[in-house]
Specification:
Rossmann fold, alpha/beta, binds magnesium ion, 292 residues, 10 strands, 2 domains, binds adenosine-5'-diphosphate
């Protein structure tokens, strides 16, 4: 019974997933579980296979062996054809924000956000525009941004617009590839807050690839470390920071890793003595369910 319950809580389950390109082994026996409504981050060096793993979760690549279940569906059992009705139904339950945004330059922001609705629903144009406008406001963009073209947007606005598009079909599951890459610290911090807000408002499950230490320490509930083709460890950043595995230590021992850890410790000390101090919205916004 307990097992049935925990299986129910898993939104993504990977079991013994192995992937190679020719002779090059990218993943060996990867096991991974993403739980409902958590913010799950995937980290690892360049070329460690993060993007490939993400592509396998969203039906863009098939592993050589192993099983992947997403939202209760065994991906292996789905047909190869993109138009296969079961795959199509599943794809509509998740949203993806690709690293470079993936917005179409020839469409306005509003048209970009409305695109999934035009493709997958029979809603009329007026309604699609209204939904697109609401999705844009949800990500903090002003209504007039809808009429602009992607090339007119700042990096932060582009990320918000891509997020709005990923949210177009009210997904249960959101995939984000490097959501803060290339942003200045202030815009990156705003995206951090937006990711938290989307999870808290809609109970979304979020899987992201990131190198951003602020995002990892302050937003991710659990983090999985990929190196040498294997899953080296999974846990909260604090749990990972106590592990001895050299492939994991790498993320904590450099100067940037140490600075992020110190910042986290400082914040924690502040939170431990709240008397006479008003909590900032940022502290309130942090998930209380964060595993310690
Ligand atoms: P990461 O996202 O962690 O940087 P990737 O998943 O993009 O890593 O790639 C992992 C490894 O697989 C790399 O060595 C890359 O060159 C290789 N690879 C990825 N996609 C392909 C492909 N379509 N054909 C051949 N090799 C690939
Ligand atoms: Mg990648």
């Amino acid at each position: 019974m307990q097992n049935a319950k925990s299986a129910d809580a898993a939104v993504i389950e990977m079991s013994k997933v192995s992937t190679r390109f020719g002779d090059h082994v990218v993943h060996s026996d990867i096991d991974l579980e993403v739980r409902r409504a958590e913010i799950f981050a995937l980290i690892g060096g360049s070329g460690s296979g993060k993007s490939t793993l993400l592509r396998e979760m969203i039906l863009l690549h098939r592993p050589n062996s192993g099983t992947i279940r997403v939202l209760g569906v065994d991906l292996q059992k789905l047909g190869d054809d993109e138009a296969d009705s079961e795959s199509l139904a599943l794809r509509q339950r998740w949203g993806v924000m690709f690293q470079h945004g993936g917005l179409f330059g020839s469409l306005t922001v509003k048209e970009n956000v409305g695109l999934p609705l035009r493709e997958h629903t029979a809603l009329d144009d007026v309604l699609i525009d209204e939904i697109a406008a609401w999705k844009l406001s949800m990500t903090g963009l002003k209504p007039e941004v809808g009429a602009q073209y992607p090339s007119e947007l700042s990096g932060g606005m582009m990320k918000r617009a891509s997020l709005a598009r990923a949210m177009a079909l009210d997904p249960e599951l959101l995939f984000l590839d490097e959501p803060t890459a290339g942003l200045d610290p202030e815009s990156a911090g705003e995206v951090d807050q937006l990711v938290l807000k989307l999870r808290d408002l809609f109970g979304l499950t979020i899987v992201m690839i990131t190198h951003d230490l602020d995002l990892l320490w302050q937003v991710a509930d659990r983090v999985a470390v990929l190196a040498d083709g294997r899953m080296q460890g999974t846990g909260s950043m604090r749990e990972l920071s106590k592990m001895d595995n050299p492939a994991i230590r790498k993320f904590f021992d450099g100067p940037r890793g140490r600075a992020a850890q110190e910042q986290e410790q400082e914040q924690e000390q502040k939170q431990e003595k709240p008397q006479g101090k008003v909590q900032t919205s940022h502290e309130i916004g942090r998930p209380s369910s964060k595993p310690k």
